[in-house]
Amino acid sequence: MSFEPLDSAKISYCLLPTGHSIAYRVLGPESSPKLPFVLIQGLSGVGLVDWYPLANSMSSDRPVVVFDNRDIGWSKPPPKGLDETITLDEMANDVVELIKYLDFRAVDILGFSMGGAILQLILLRASELPFKIHHAILASTFAVTPTGTNLVELFLPSSDEKSDETAEQRKYRTTKKLLEAQYDAAWLANPKNFEKLEQRVEQTHIAKRPVPVILRQALACQDIDLRASLSNISKAIRLLSIHGTTDEVVGFAEQAIILSFIRHAQVVKTPGAAYGHFWFDYFGLEFWTKVLADFLDDQNVERSKL
């Protein structure tokens, strides 16, 4: 994985009715018979950089939309300043407004971690939307606040400053510690992954990830329980679930909860069941590109014109 610096000149903005400006890019061909593929990032994630290289690979023959959730990365808060709170419903509305702004009549969507909870809220509103959702992918996500995981503590660890550290060294150490939590022990012990981890650290430093925003995102994920509504998700929407057994951020048990309520969801087939929260860094880029493309290109769903 060779990271390519983001060209800020290629970033576009969608001004929302709330005054927020959502930073986004549409990768891939301007014209394609395949539906746009919208990717929703998770807690502390910055879509314009963190989806690399998966988004770039997926965009070889279809439009892929990457964006930053409100108030993080290149997205801009409203003139009044940062929100005092952020809710998952608000972030779901942001995604809907972005798709409307792009004038897509039908889309496929992937939601990762917190982004998967956001996607579930969108799916529950599918019949009311001005566009159709044909395929949805729920990756390393939850329908109820995960037990045993303190999201605030995980993503905003308490400072354990060392007297001989510079500010830059401390930032590197805390960032690396956070990223290591996204993988399992076997992945971290494999020398082949050392360079990839360092590149993820580099990517994390490129974008603005304000601590107050991450805190508000973490708080937005508390006391969430969508279980009673999930059976209302339309069976006309094809669903795929991705979740590794060694995910220590959102435990593997959360997948079973979702599947028990969304019974028509498929489970992805992988070379091994043990993989961590950053599922896209396991098994190779070619594997995920093919698996996702095969699912999205399933012709059992009648397609609408864009």
UniProtKB/TrEMBL annotation:
<feature type="domain" description="AB hydrolase-1">
    <location>
        <begin position="36"/>
        <end position="272"/>
    </location>
</feature>
<dbReference type="InterPro" id="IPR029058">
    <property type="entry name" value="AB_hydrolase_fold"/>
</dbReference>
<dbReference type="InterPro" id="IPR000073">
    <property type="entry name" value="AB_hydrolase_1"/>
</dbReference>
<protein>
    <recommendedName>
        <fullName>AB hydrolase-1 domain-containing protein</fullName>
    </recommendedName>
</protein>
<dbReference type="InterPro" id="IPR050471">
    <property type="entry name" value="AB_hydrolase"/>
</dbReference>
<dbReference type="Pfam" id="PF00561">
    <property type="entry name" value="Abhydrolase_1"/>
</dbReference>
